[in-house]
Amino acid sequence: MNKLILLLFIVFPAIINASGDASLGEKKSQTCLGCHGVQGNSVISGFPKLAGQGYGYLIKQMQDFKSGARFDAVMAGQVAILSEKDIEDISAYYSSQTISSGLAKNDADIELGQKIYRGGKRQDEVTACIACHGPKGSGIPSARFPALASQHAQYLVKQLQAFRQYSINKQTGASAPSRSNDYEGMMTDFSKSLTNVEIEAVSQYIAGLR
After folding, report:
1. 110 burial level (CB within 10 Å; 0-12, 13-18, 19+)
2. What is the pTM of this model?
3. Domains of the chain by residue range
4. How many beta carbons lie within 10 A of that of residue 197, not counting itself?
5. What CATH number is given for 12-95 in this structure?
6. For domain 110-207, is the CATH number 1.10.760.10?
7. How far is 63 from 76, CA to CA, in rounded Å?
8. How do residues 1-35 score in pLDDT, each as one tens digit?
9. Alpha helices of the chain — where are they, by DSSP H?
10. What is the pLDDT of residues 123-175, one digit of tens each?
C-alpha cells in the first residue's frame, strides 16, 4: 500500500472539529493585519492569504512556528506570546473567511503548471498535486492538507523552493534556509526534482484556481 493511500485511509483522523471562537479570533488577529490583510486576504504577494484556509492546518502551522519546526523570524515573534486557545481562536476566524480571487500572470505557462498539478512528473515518480490538494485546490481539511486555490503565486514559489532546499541541504551538507514540516516528507519529495521554471508554472496555475 503506497504512502498516499496509507495517509488518507489510516493515519489521519476524521474531520477536525473546530473548538476555537471566531469572534474572539477576529479581535486577536489585529496584529496579523499588516502582513495578512483584512479578513486574511493579504494584498502583499510575499505573504500568504489565510482566509478560508483549513482550521487544523492553520493550528499546525502556528504550533510549528512556535516550536521551531517551521522557521520564520517574524512569525516566531508573533506566535511566541500566543496561548493554545489564542491559536485556536485565530485559526477559527481565518478559516471562516472567504479567500479573494487569485490571478495568474498573463505570460504564465499555465499548460505546464496544469500538467504538473494534475499529472505530477511520472519520470521522477512525483505525485500530482491534485491527489492531496484536490482538483480545485480546496485541500483536504481532515488531513490538514492546505487549500491552495487563489493563493499568491510568489508565496507558493517561495514555499516550494524552501521544501526543495531541504533536499539540497541533505544532499550537499548546506545549511540554507529551508522548510520540512510536511507530513512524511511528501512536499520535499514532490519539490526536489522541480526546476525553477516548473515551480513558477505550477504556482501560477494554482493562483488562478477557483
Report:
1. middle
2. 0.91
3. 12-95, 110-207
4. 10
5. 1.10.760.10
6. yes
7. 10
8. 344 444 444 344 434 556 899 999 999 999 999 99
9. 3-6, 22-28, 33-36, 55-67, 73-79, 84-95, 110-119, 130-133, 153-172, 186-191, 196-207
10. 888 899 999 999 999 999 999 999 999 999 999 999 999 999 999 999 999 99
